[in-house]
Amino acid sequence: MQVKDIMTPPITIDKSERLGHALDLMEKHGTRRLLVTNNGKLGGIITMRQIARVLGTRRRLGMPASSLHVAAATLDAVIPVHPEMGVEEAILLLQKTSVLVVTQNDEILGWVRPREILANVKLTGVSKDAMRSALTVSPRDRLIHARRMMMDRDIGRLPVLDGGKLVGILTERDIARALRAFRDLVSWRQQETRIKNLLVSDVMTHDVKYVYVDTPLEEVRRIILEENRGGLPVLNSDGTLAGMITRRCLIDYLVRTKALAA
């Protein structure tokens, strides 16, 4: 199997567009990343995490999302690959980056993300075989501290625990959307003071989907793909948090077990 067999059409945005438009495109297409183009050529990638990073920086407080350009949040860490690259090699590369861009003669043909890989495999095992340990926050934690934890650890979601019980999840999408609204609605004179008062509970997703340590990985894969979720908390049988399982966890599991379908 080659990457040309599993690639999908990428969602693109020009680097001169506004960050607000990038967020709207992500919401419309249910994706956390867009390819950035410059005069039709590949210019990099913009991710939900990078938007959350840029919108939360102190030096940009007072600037609404509508005034910031895509170029301000563009990353150049994109790996172009040939359409005939084997999927096994692509999986190894996806351990280092979030997307592979399939190109030929400088033309963008498609992209391959963890989603495209997971749509073309079958998994054995259960959640505890692939999950990772989870950093957590409290609903009473300040949002700026939770955001900093996510940016420093390069993770996209934090389970929210209250008294040891899972009560929600905070994602990079929640943060990006909240910071966009905050910048657009709050006077720039008040932003620095008021942003410090935002709590995780003000922004988090309350209706959190989860699985158990013994949930089959095929069921996890189905939920992630059909419900377009980047990751899921994993609970023990008594309801306590055991870990997190993400798309990247499943990619790492594929590499460890060489479970790629023929």
From TrEMBL:
Gene Ontology biological process: methionine biosynthetic process
PANTHER family found in the cross-reference section: CBS DOMAIN-CONTAINING PROTEIN CBSX2, CHLOROPLASTIC, METHYLATED PROTEIN MJ0556
Residues annotated as domain CBS: 6-61, 130-185, 204-260
UniProt keywords, alphabetically: Amino-acid biosynthesis, CBS domain, Methionine biosynthesis, Repeat
Entry keyword Metal-binding: no
InterPro entries in alphabetical order: CBS_dom, CBS_dom_sf, CBS_domain-containing
Annotated organism of origin: Methanothrix thermoacetophila (strain DSM 6194 / JCM 14653 / NBRC 101360 / PT)
Superkingdom of the organism of origin: Archaea
Identification of the protein by name: CBS domain containing membrane protein
Keyword Repeat: yes
